[in-house]
Amino acid sequence: MGGAASGVARDTIPPVINLFMDSESFAFGGLTGQNTTLLANLSDDSGINTTGAGIGHDITAVLDNDPNKLLVLNDRYVSNVGDFRAGKVNTLFKDLAPGPHSLRLKAWDTYNNSAEREIEFVVARDEKLALTHVLNYPNPFANSTTFFFDHNQAGSEPDNLDVQVQILPWPVIWYAP
Question: Which top-rank group of organisms is this from (predicted)?
C-alpha cells in the first residue's frame, strides 16, 4: 500500500484531437442540418482521461464560446477495441439555430496534458436540401471530372443523395478581324 513508482517515463505531449460533424468527410466551415452529430477522434500514447478526477479534467465541448453551453462528454467516450490509447466521442446536437456556429472540444491525457480543438460549421434548415462548396476537379476538364459539395442532410453521404448535375458547353465566341 502506498508509495510511487520510480523511473516512470515523462509525458508532456497533449492528446491529438480531430473533429468532424456528421461524417469524417466533413470539411471545416461546412454545412450541417439543425440536428447534427459531433464526431471527435481522440488519441494519446498515455491514454485519454475520462475519470473526471481533478477539477476541470473532463472531456468538454463548448458551443459558440458560451460557457452556459458547456457539455461534459466523459460518458460519450468509447475507446477503440483493444487499444486504450485512442477512441471516439459522438454526441448529437438538436435544434440548432440556422447560421454559423463553432464548437470547441477539450480533452486530457492520463498525465494531465490537455489539448483543445475547434471546428466551425454552418447550420441550414433541414426542410430543404442545401449545398455549399460545390466544386469539381479537375477544372477545366476534357473527358471526366469529379464533383464535391457540402450538404445539410445529416446522416446522408453524398452517394445516397439524388443530385442532378448539368454540364453545359462553354460558349465559344469568334471575332472576325
Answer: Bacteria
